[in-house]
Amino acid sequence: MDQRWFDPGFGSWVRMMGAEAGVEVGAMPGSTDVRWRIGSRDGGREVRAVGNPGDLCVTSRRRDANIEYMPDGRLSWTASSRLLAGGTRGEARAHHLDPPRSPWSAADLRYRDLPSADPGSGAAPLLLLHGFAGSAADWDGVAPLLAHDRRVLAYDHRGHGDSDKFGERSAYTFDHLSADLESFTERVLPEPFDLLGHSMGGVLALRYTLAHPDRVRSLVLMDTAAEPTSTPVQRVLSRGLNAVVGRWGLKPLLTLLKPLTRAPADASPEDLARRERQSRALAGMDRAAFVGCAQALGTYPSLVGRLAEVSCPVTVVVGEHDRRLRGAAEQFAAGIPGARLRVIAGAKHSPQTERPQDWLAAVRGHLAR
């Protein structure tokens, strides 16, 4: 029998009687729901159970687990593994001393880290947060050009790119995405930094800035909003689309979008590369992330009433033809003290790829403040 402390956020595995098996346990943020997974290193099954006092149990052909709330509030788990030879059982037991948190609350994030070409510049690092259905690759055309005098970082949100994919929509709330951002900055960016968020990434950037004003040196909000902007018709269409993706995956969506996103005959090589990158990013998404993040974008609590709390320098960037978010950009500029508004001529929702030189000029101007 092997006993060890449960590692919150990442789970704990034990070796029992020569067979490797284990359990991951945690509570969903803001609730009493308990999540736990039982399995082996190369596979297993996943179960969700409600965290009421008492035993919670799942049984498979060869593996069992029991979860119990102790009288002092600790969480206890017992994992067992039946071996084929003679049905021998091994058992391990551990106690969690603190309130458990979800293994889904801190994802393994794939990120890009560009060192400054001038380490002696003294400039703060810049963290770039991509939008819904994007990836860190969204910044490939501009990040190296910003790294001439500062460190530039960008990561794939959970369910996007090469970061962790959980296969369950409840893992894709703004609370989880924000927890990832907090975990990432604690580990990788201990010093104050400049923060830029695009679309969904902008919502996360604003939330983080409000929660950690001492950590953010300056903020760029790009083609984003302080509250959901979808109309009732758009919400109905979104629910229908989410139902399709949730049941059949992203392939039908990609087929539907193909004729709508086909490049014009005179498209530039840069435009062709951008479209190909966007298609790859969407195709590589966890279908649960598509549904979960889309739902989060349509339901997150308004932050309009807190805009005046933002005290760092802020620049609001928006594409000239991003009709849905032009009004939101003006709302930011009016509500955040000292905020500057930069409209990128000719751009739609992604100015960094549609008008990169104009976008770079706006961001460099901001960073020089």
From TrEMBL:
Gene3D superfamilies: alpha/beta hydrolase. It comes from the Bacteria. GO terms for cellular component: membrane. Keywords: Hydrolase. GO terms for molecular function: aminopeptidase activity. One of its GO terms (biological process) is proteolysis. InterPro entries: AB_hydrolase_1 (IPR000073), AB_hydrolase_fold (IPR029058), AB_hydrolase_sf (IPR050266), Peptidase_S33 (IPR002410). It holds the Pfam family Abhydrolase_1. Residues 125-356 form the AB hydrolase-1 domain. Coiled coil: none annotated. Belongs to the peptidase S33 family. This is Alpha/beta hydrolase.
